[in-house]
């Protein structure tokens, strides 16, 4: 999610990160937080951003109140071109407010702000450019099928994610007495199995339905999605399976390789999205599609860097390994 940075594709209702003129000037990045898996993945990507236009990490605060003052002062002095909020859900707003205060004191528009969390994904004043990991895969699976959805019937998405998707917590290390970052869920705690959770009302369920409805025009009206996630004993990577009722009977032909089902090895550690496994029901009134991505990369850090590159005038894939 980013604001005050991006334009829109002409004739489209979709906010698109197309934005700043091409630049050769070095840009300065303020990275706030970044203690969790996603922040670490983004830091790794930033370390490989190609010269001569490096993105420099300026700030990773550990004390919230002191950090807010730092953010406000740095924005006031104009030393940051873009801020990345790599923070837990629900704690971003005070830092965004600090950016706004600093910009107001400077008398100019605020710097670009990109939020890796969910705090602003339903805000009309923000450009929707960084969906949640499950919401990314769900929307990519369903968006082409929206015109064909059967009215009154929910497309259902079953998602399985590596345990890094559950995030991290801060705990005291008994040996040192210091705060350390630990996974909320581990492979050991799952004991080789998968664990369903948030069986209804997951935030990415609401996010996907909301934005499929607002970003795409559907004769069927608002799009509602049934989404059921599970966490698995591998580290990263999401496989999503969508079962989609169709308003008219259809058939498939000439699909070729797209019948290959996306698997974990296709997405883990990769920076894009993989789709396959297209199959029609015998009656032709339902299609099943499988897609996948790495929840820490294309589901978070890679998208973030794509947005930053476009907002700051770099090539979209600068610093992102591509095949």
Automatic annotation (TrEMBL):
Extent of the signal sequence: none
One GO MF term: oxidoreductase activity, acting on the aldehyde or oxo group of donors, NAD or NADP as acceptor
InterPro entries in UniProt: AGPR, AGPR_dimerisation_dom, NAD(P)-bd_dom_sf, Semialdehyde_DH_NAD-bd
Sequence segments annotated as region (Disordered): 1-24
Keywords: Amino-acid biosynthesis, Arginine biosynthesis, NADP, Oxidoreductase
Domain called Semialdehyde dehydrogenase NAD-binding: residue spans: 28-141
One GO-annotated biological process of the protein: L-arginine biosynthetic process
Protein name (record): Semialdehyde dehydrogenase NAD-binding domain-containing protein
Source organism per UniProt: Agrocybe chaxingu
Lineage of origin: Eukaryota, Fungi, Dikarya, Basidiomycota, Agaricomycotina
């Amino acid at each position: 999610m980013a604001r005050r940075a991006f334009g829109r594709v002409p004739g489209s209702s979709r906010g698109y990160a197309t934005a700043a003129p091409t630049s050769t000037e070095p840009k300065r990045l303020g990275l706030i937080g970044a203690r969790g898996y996603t922040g670490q993945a983004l830091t790794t990507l930033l370390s490989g951003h190609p010269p001569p236009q490096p993105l420099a990490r300026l700030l990773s605060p550990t004390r919230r109140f002191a950090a807010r003052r730092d953010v406000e002062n740095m924005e006031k002095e104009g030393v940051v071109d873009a801020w990345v909020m790599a923070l837990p859900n629900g704690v971003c707003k005070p830092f965004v407010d600090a950016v706004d205060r600093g910009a107001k004191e400077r008398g100019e528009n605020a710097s670009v702000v990109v939020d890796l969390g969910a705090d602003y994904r339903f805000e009309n004043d923000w450009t929707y450019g960084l969906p949640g990991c499950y919401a990314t895969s769900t929307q990519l699976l369903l968006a082409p099928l929206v015109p064909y959805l059967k009215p009154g019937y929910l497309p259902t998405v079953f998602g399985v994610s590596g345990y890094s998707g559950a995030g991290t917590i801060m705990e005291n290390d008994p040996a040192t007495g210091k705060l350390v970052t630990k996974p909320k869920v581990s492979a050991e705690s799952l004991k080789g199995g998968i664990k369903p959770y948030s069986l209804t009302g997951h935030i990415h369920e609401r996010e996907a339905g909301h934005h499929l409805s607002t970003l795409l025009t559907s004769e069927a009206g608002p799009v509602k999605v049934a989404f059921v996630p599970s966490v698995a004993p591998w580290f990263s990577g999401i496989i999503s399976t969508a079962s989609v009722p169709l308003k008219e009977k259809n058939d498939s032909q000439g699909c070729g390789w797209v019948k290959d089902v996306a698997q974990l090895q296709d997405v883990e550690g990769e920076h894009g999205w993989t789709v396959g496994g297209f199959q029609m029901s015998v009656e032709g009134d339902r299609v099943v599609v499988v897609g996948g991505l790495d929840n820490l990369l294309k589901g978070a850090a890679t998208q973030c860097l794509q947005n930053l590159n476009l907002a700051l005038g770099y090539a979209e894939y600068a610093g992102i390994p591509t095949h």
